[in-house]
Amino acid sequence: MAGTRWRRERWISVVREFERSGMTHREFAQKHRLKLSTLQSWIYKLRRENSATVS
Length: 55
What we know:
- The protein is mainly α.
- The protein is about 85% helix and about 0% strand.
- It is built from three helices and no strands.
- The model has no long low-confidence stretch (mean pLDDT about 90).
C-alpha cells in the first residue's frame, strides 16, 4: 500500500511539472525518459479525478 501512495504522489508531481512545461506529451516524455503511454494515462486519470471532485 505504501508503494502505491508514493507512486501516486510522484505522478501528481510529474503531471504538474508537465502542465507547467509548455511541452507536448511526447517532448516531455522523451526529456524525462518516461513511457509516453504511461504519462498520458496519468494525465488523463488525474484530470478526470480532479474534474469529478470539482463538479
